Amino acid sequence: MDFILEGILAVTWKQCIMYLVGALLIWLAIKKEYEPSLLLPMGFGAILVNLPFSGVLNQPNEVIGEVPGIIQWLFETTIEASEALPLHLFIGIGAMIDFGPLLSNPKMFLFGAAAQAGIFLTMIIAVIFGFGLKDAASIGMIGAADGPTAILVSQVLKSDYAGQIAVAAYSYMALVPIIQPAAIKMVTTKKERAMKMEYNPKNVTKTMRILFPIIVTVIAGFVAPASVSLVGFLMFGNLIRECGVLKTLSDTAQNVLANLVTLILGLTISFSMTAEEFVRKETLVIILLGLIAFVLDSMVGVLFAKVLNIFCKNKVNPMVGAAGISAFPMSARVIQKMGLEADNQNHLLMHAVGANVSGQIASVLAGGVILNVLPTMLG
Amino acid sequence: MNKFLELLKNNVNMDDLFDALTITWQGMAGIFVVMAIIAVLVLVFAAVSSKKK
After folding, report:
1. What separation in angstroms does the CA of A22 have from each of A29, A160, A162?
2. CA of B7: which chain A residue's CA is closest?
3. Which residue range is the domain that position B39 belongs to?
4. What is the CA radius of gyration of chain B?
5. pLDDT per residue over A305-324, tens digit each?
6. Contact list, B34 vs chain A (CB under 8 Å)
């Protein structure tokens, strides 16, 4: 009957910490509704993989050899070997995005690009904190405000901190309504926040909507070939949405596919949350760096808008620059709310949505660019 | 300033730091170039379609 106590006696203090981390993630998901579709499975998964001799991980057995575990198998096949899960999620995300507000105001493309600066600046800070280049680049990707991209880049670069990066990325995405107002207020005055913008939407033809995802994929492919899987799957999802003849598939991608993949991705990524991998002092540094990345993204976005205003006739409310991060649609909503707080007639939503969807494209491009440049540099 | 640079030199892998700086400027330039090309194409397409109408 020794086996009854074998599990309890094998629990380590690090595993106990992970049970608390798992419970915290579940609490955040249920009580605070922070990204519940991902934090809930990740939290439960964190408990699952840290149970002693957990059956969800491969376990050696003296008699019958290695017994396979489902979460380890899922991780090795659908993330480590093929990146299939994060990539399939991009089809769903692409099908959800309406690029109309961006296409009717192409200036917003630049805001998406500017707001990725936080990724690279955080990478530099991470190197100063002593992380190796591959880990630093993966940590910087938290600033993409794009969970699947952060997971994919950290996996492709074989970062030692994939679990921490995934947790930080999704936690901060959920905290955008708290982080962004604070960051934006640091670099704007109330007068700037109250700046009104006219909204004159141009008609976006169906042909343009259909050609857009194809052209973006081709251009991204030429400039950063490593981004093709990321951009391609995102844009394929968008093509399904815009082509007009695949409504059922579009609905499936937006709902069933996205939900199912999110659910499995959350459980699967918990493989990288084993106590040995997760409970280290670097985890706290990564959590801090993730916050820095989000703050820098927002601040650089705002400052870029201010610089652009020097040269442009039609001024942009600087806050719209901060919407260039990929956290869609939270970031756009934050800007709308802050605009109304500064002046109750200041409606910025559609401009912010344009910058926000531009950030979706720019963040996957940033991931692709890092995957393109970094291996060549290390090679 | 000199003290700070000395501290940086002693505690940071300078090769990694220079590589990170290179990736930063190349990365940001790459993203801006791609986004600007797409924006220009969208503008050109919009102008052509409005002329056709």
Report:
1. 11, 20, 16
2. A128
3. 2-52
4. 21
5. 999 999 988 889 999 999 99
6. 113, 219-220, 223-224, 365
A18 CB-near residues (< 8 Å, 6+ apart): A46, A47, A50, A273, A274, A275, A278, A279
Per-residue model confidence (pLDDT) at position A207: 92
CA distance B24 to A198: 34
How far is the alpha carbon of B21 from chain A, nearest alpha carbon, in Å? 7
If we measure between CA atoms, which residue out of A258, A308, A298, A361 comes closest to residue A143?
A298
- Say what the pLDDT of residue A27 is: 94
- For residue A240, how many other CB atoms are within 10 A of its CB? 24
The domain tally of chain B equals: 1
Predicted local confidence at residue B13, as pLDDT: 86
pLDDT in tens, A323-372: 999 888 889 999 999 999 999 999 999 999 999 999 999 999 999 999 98
Domain definitions of chain A by residue range: 3-378
Report the distance separating Cα B44 and Cα A192, nearest Å: 32
Which of chain A's residues have a Cβ under 8 Å away from the Cβ of B26?
A: 369, 373
Sorted by sequence, the CB contacts under 8 Å of residue A344 that are 6+ apart come out as none
pLDDT along chain B (53 residues), means of 10: 74 88 93 93 88 73
Find the farthest-apart pair of alpha carbons in chain B and give their distance in angstroms, rounded. 66
How does pLDDT run across A43-71, given as a tens digit for each residue? 999 999 999 988 899 888 878 888 889 99
B46 in contact with A at a CB cutoff of 8 Å? Answer: yes
Distance, in Å, from the CA atom of A111 to the CA atom of A95, rounded to the nearest integer, reads 22
Selecting from A110, A127, A207 the residue whose C-beta is nearest the C-beta of B13 gives A127
CB contacts < 8 A (A, B): 115
